[in-house]
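Homework help thread (please don't just give me the answer)

Our assignment gives two proteins as sequence + structure token strings and asks us to describe the second one. The first is just a warm-up. Here they are:
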Amino acid sequence: MNMTRRDFLKLCGAGTVVLSMGAKVAPQDWARVGASVPRPTRPSNGVLIDTTKCIGCQQCQIACQQSKNLPVDKTKRALCPVAPSVVKVANVSTDPDKPALKPVKWQCMNCVNPSCVSACTVGALQKRDDGPVVYDSNRCIGCRYCMYACPFGIPTFEWDKQLSLISKCDGCASRRDQGKLPACVEACPTKALTYGNRDELLTIANQRIYSGDGSYVRHIYGEHEVGGTTMLYLASVPFERLGFPTLPEVAPAEINAAIMHSTPTIAVGMALALSGIYWLIKRRDRLEAQLANNQNHNGGH
């Protein structure tokens, strides 16, 4: 069949109409497929980490190792490429022109809307509504998508094991369930770590920043980064000088959710649009064939 430019534009217009109809009739429940983790439904707890009070004793790291029954090596510093603990204390240079180093505690940020959870295809990572991002090794297939998705580079692949899986901090979820403090918080001798409700921790952090002697930078790291985290930081120097990544306020999981939310509607709409175009073409073919038959019949007489 020969199609003119006018015919093509008509079909495109018809497809657009059908596509818009498909967007309206697409089941709304399908939009939930692949959506990111819902926002917490009850108060989320977390830890406020005041780097100005940290002395680099690594008691938090040792306590983490012990609570998870990991090998404790007090001589191995956290600056090693692979540390046996899911909590690490790194000595960071705050000024390239000076040799002074600042100890900084690192662990999973237990994001409010974690990208690792949205990236996990088997549900091995789950966000609890009280804060922690927990990990089920029985579900994990070792795909490492969570490592690629995490903006903080936290999940660690256990390269030294034959059946390698992922290692990460889960905020001591099991200890919390028993009414205990996270192991790192309990072990800190200088009270650099404060456990509590996230909103209350933000209040405490703001009080220290604005009612103190001006020793803190006016930034609570984790308050807004990637949608917020339950691990919050205070510092006396800009966080980028401590090695913290500069991140947007929108969580990657939110972007993924928006894409996944629209995908079913687009797919259904496109299917309806193509079906509509196919039906119009077939209808045109039938009409042309019928017209040709009529002309032949009339010509025969």
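The one we have to describe:
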Amino acid sequence: MGAKPTILQVNNFPAATEARLASEFAVERWPGAPDERERLLERVGPTIRGIATASLGPVDAGLIGRLPALEIIACFSVGLDGIDTAFAKSRDIKVTNSGAVVAPDVADVVVGLTIGLGRGMLAADSFLRRGLWRVEKGQWSNGNYPLGRSMQDRRIGLLGYGRIGQEVARRLAGFPVEVGYCARSAHPGASLPYFPTAVDLAIWCDVLVVCCPGGAATRHLVDAIVLRGLGAEGLLINVARGSVVDEAALISALEAGTIGGAGLDVFETEPNVPEALRALPNVVLLPHIGSATHETRVAMGNSMIDALCAQLLAVSPASPGPAQGTRGR
């Protein structure tokens, strides 16, 4: 049996993922100190055929350019924010992500945020725990707790219609709602209403779900104009990247009542969440837990390793489900 292919591990991964990487490949870990990185590149740079990374990397042109044998960059997560995909494409280097295995859990969070925010579930929990639930004679059972918003006949707009957007649409098919989407172009075969711009979609919908890729092309795509289009009763759900939403504009819109509320799993400068946002009563804030289940984190690691194996060992994936990816996306 020949020597194991050499790969560069840029980020830390769950223990099971790191154990499987070590069993399949000769793993070189990317050091933190610049001088150590230089020594590593001088020692093994020409032999590195694959990179295992997470979304923020960084895997830039400077690193890629020092690895003449590089064939594949396999990403543990969905986003490719920290990978110079354009430069990788110019070098004919394959770039993969774990979008297929992540999408179901992220879609579940979207549905949970939409219902929980609309019905004020977190605030209702706090209301009860603080002993504020009082029911006087002649009152309804909820006492003086404010009424929420029903899912009935709501319009849900998906800003992005990739794997996550399509998973959300499948889940919402069981609800009495209408779903539309905005993407760079209409998807062949999609039966949902298509809107060419984020503003058009926001004006149409009651709940705007942000599930498009991050990066420079979508930075602050959801700005003050889009939020005004969403309207005073509209809800914003963001499970994409914090950079897609202009956070300052969102805070202003929430404070002014320009929109009704927001459910956020991602933020512009994670893990720093502005105090102004944390102080607002009409938001639900999550610490980027969209894919954070035991099952999905295992699947993400296997997806990344399966892609490396398929490229570098010329073997079919050993773990359940095929590796999914894109080239220079």
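TA reply:
I won't write it for you, but here's a hint about the kind of observation we're looking for: The chain is about 35% helix and 15% strand.
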